[in-house]
Hints:
about 45% helix
Amino acid sequence: MAESKFSIIFSDLTDPRVDRTKRHKLLDIIGLSISGFCVISQRICHPFRKLKYI
């Protein structure tokens, strides 16, 4: 299976967690964090789309 662009971009990151506390993969955590940020930012910016100056 070919590597995704996401995994290639974040492959240089080192995982600072202790081995016994690694319940989920670091790339999974990063992906969910980015996805959550995008959803929240859309909900915050939605009311301001009706303004002419933004």
